[in-house]
Amino acid sequence: MPTARPPLSLLLALLALPLTAGCGDGGEGTQPPRSRKDGHLTFTVLALDCGITGVTGSHADAPPQGQFCAARLRVENRDPNYHTYESARQRLAGVSGSRARPDSFAMAVRRQSDTVKLGGHTLMEVELWYDVPKDADITGLRVSGDNDPSGFMSTKPVGRAPGGVLIPVTPGTRGPGATST
Fold first, then answer.
1. Residue 65 gets which letter from DSSP?
2. Which of 31, 65, 118, 180 has its Cβ near the most Cβ atoms within 10 Å?
3. pTM
4. Would you give the DSSP letter of residue 176?
């Protein structure tokens, strides 16, 4: 007596199951997305840590005035043209004034560039270091992209949020593939 074969679609679905397992956000859709686009650049927060009591690099170390917060950020240029990323434009939400911007000394200690010209279809990961008050209530990272023309032979700037785009994230957050700073 011949044995019944399962339909081909069932076999393909079973083969694909291991490839898709674990592709969700782990919170069944409850986590806010950690990626946003502004200008030509797409930003993904990989990690955000606060309460750091010092910064150390190859040539210096220092304590913060309050506490250090360090963010690991993936920046992607999905456009075929060069576009410039500026670390000083990335602000920590929940902090006001100059302390919302990356701390220039901590960034120098960690040897992080002020600006990077990203080639077409290129991505990079950067560290952002902030010196914020100890009682700061961090609610996310406000990212800001480039202001280049929208395309070849255009003089009109690409669409960009004037104050940047908020990525809601709280300290202690780790995204997929994140490493500690």
1. S
2. 118
3. 0.77
4. T
